Amino acid sequence: MRTILLNQRKERDELLAQHYLMRHTVYDFEQLLQSHNIKLLTGPRRVGKSTQALLMLKDKNFAYLNFDDNGLLNKWDEDLVMQLLDEIYPDYEYLLLDEVQNVKDWEIWVGKLFRRGVNLVITGSNAKMLSGEMATVLTGRYLEVTMLPFSLEETFEWNKIDVKNIKEEEKVTVSVIRDQYLRQGGYPESVIQRSVAKSYLHSLFDSIVFKDVVRRHKIRNVTDLNNVADFLLSNFCNPLSYNDVCDDLGLNSVSTTKKFMDYLHEPYLFFYLPRYNNKLKLMKKAPQKVYVVDNGFVTANAFNVGENLGRLLENQIFVELLRQGYDTVNTLFYYRSRNDRETDFVIREGSRIKKLIQVCFDVSSGKTLKRETDSLIECAEELNCSDLSIVTDHDEFTIEKDGFTINVVPSMKFLADNLSVKK
């Protein structure tokens, strides 16, 4: 065990010596560290949770345990590990537990450490840490930080481009980066090396399904699970019910279908956006729109993106809204009017509908623009909302119609204007 922990210390020091991008989030990391509550960094695998945790603690005296290490898991001995940590990291101020959900009964152990006064920073790749185990054992004793793939702004920053001051000679590069981001997403490894993005993301998708779903939940019918995952991926941005998925795939059980879909949400792979209704019972019965955490997964799994640019842009905007702190339980929805016209995103603040957002890649066609405008206005009338936007790939202008003002904005401007949104 001593050798394992010494090797992990070496790994930690090597990681700290590398160059990283400090992530843009709605959180103040220095303030987070000053809290004695547990700092919990969650999100899908490989988005940079461990890196961000290391950057937070870089100038601190901290101990490190990586539970993605089978050697540590196979020889796990709680008392021995704590003794060795005191020897290897004398007088450490913080303890970083990386992918702690891999340890059996981890939440009980973490609760014990917290009660002993250990200042904890934890990373994990499973939403159930919050909805289940963590919330049950440590209610009110942890602060959540959700990490997602690079935003478009972070992707530009990695490429050393200031999006607020784009130079003439950078415009072609900016256009290329935007297109790559739309199609290949923002996973750090894929941003750093676009030439291997497709193969990397294909393998990562399979790895998340296997490690975070099949292995964690001991799934026997892996074929049906994979079929559900592929179906959701091919139907991203579409409204689906559990019955729809079950029937289209010819599965035997709606309850099993629901269980598989819930499992695929746990590792932050898919998100399900509810249809807004002020009656909770009706909202729960309506189909949910399916989104994927990164556009690159769509491209990497060989779906025809040529016809999907509008959906890719919609998915990109959805993930950006999550990044800004909105969530699919209390603040973010889609809406269908009484005449079955749809608005992509409804943002709620308290009991008030704050903003409606429609996403359409190209509104150069008069017919398309009329359809999107009429739909947005009809939904706005029913929801009593006046802050209306249509997000496009590049178009920008204002529409005045039926007493409403609609701002048509290119995605780059929409993202830049919303960078200051706080959770």
Descriptive report:
The structure is a single chain. α1 packs across α5 (78-88) and α13 packs across α14 (254-265). The protein contains 19 helices and 14 strands. The two termini are 41 Å apart. The longest helix is centred in the middle third of the chain and has 21 residues, at 197-217. It has 423 residues and is α/β, with parallel strands linked by helices. The protein is globular, with a radius of gyration of 23 Å. The strands form 3 sheets. It has a 6-stranded mixed beta sheet. A 5-stranded parallel beta sheet has the order 2-3-4-1-5, with helices on both faces. A 3-stranded antiparallel beta sheet has the order 6-8-7, with helices on both faces. A hairpin with a 2-residue loop joins β10 (342-349) and β11.
